[in-house]
Design brief:
This protein has one domain. A six-stranded antiparallel β-sheet has the order 1-2-6-5-4-3, sandwiched between helices. α3 runs antiparallel to α4. The radius of gyration is 18 Å and the shape is globular. It has seven helices and six strands; from the N terminus they run ααβααβααββββα. Helix content is about 40%, strand content about 30%. By secondary structure, the chain is of the alpha+beta class. The longest helix has 15 residues.
């Protein structure tokens, strides 16, 4: 009886302590161990360590130091990718969550990209990039991302070809 009681408490604790938004945790739970799916979790301490030792510019270093966690899920198996659409599968679960706000939507034929976020007046606390269509991926970032750091990073790197359509 003690085991059942202890297991029940542990089960409730684990699911109540889940820090991810609806849809995010579901996607990682469903696809995490499937063949042809790559999932990566990078804790904040590892990101900050890389920022400290890496050959980075000031804005890049500050941006990395503001990240607490990154989780990436991508479907690499062509057959599984053809049968899957992460965007269609998890968009509604994320959208229905009252905390996540839709920040950007891109639709191009079969491809869909939606960026969700939770922000206050000073920073973006959580960011979710949901990709479906020909490619399927989910990127979850948690931290205290200041919009000006992201903007500066994108401005600097777009001149060097990052987020640029120039060949």
């Amino acid at each position: 009886m003690k085991r059942i009681y202890l297991f029940s408490i542990l089960f409730v604790f684990l699911f109540s302590a889940c820090e991810y938004e609806s849809g995010v945790s579901e996607a990682f739970a469903k696809y995490r161990y499937k063949e042809g799916v790559t999932t990566i979790t990078v804790p904040g301490w590892a990101i900050r360590l890389a920022a400290r030792w890496g050959d980075l510019e000031k804005n890049e270093r500050e941006l990395l130091q503001s990240i607490d966690k990154v989780k990436v899920l991508t479907i690499e198996d062509e057959n599984l990718n053809a049968r899957s659409n992460l965007h269609k599968e998890f968009y509604n679960a994320v959208k229905e969550n009252s905390e996540m706000e839709e920040l950007m939507v891109v639709r191009d034929g079969n491809d869909q990209v939606t960026i969700f976020g939770i922000a206050d007046e000073k920073s973006i606390k959580e960011l979710l990039i949901l990709v479906g269509g020909d490619d399927n991926a989910m990127v979850y970032v948690k931290g205290r991302l200041k919009p000006e750091l992201i903007s500066n990073f994108m401005d600097e790197n777009s001149q060097r070809g990052f987020l640029s359509f120039k060949n």
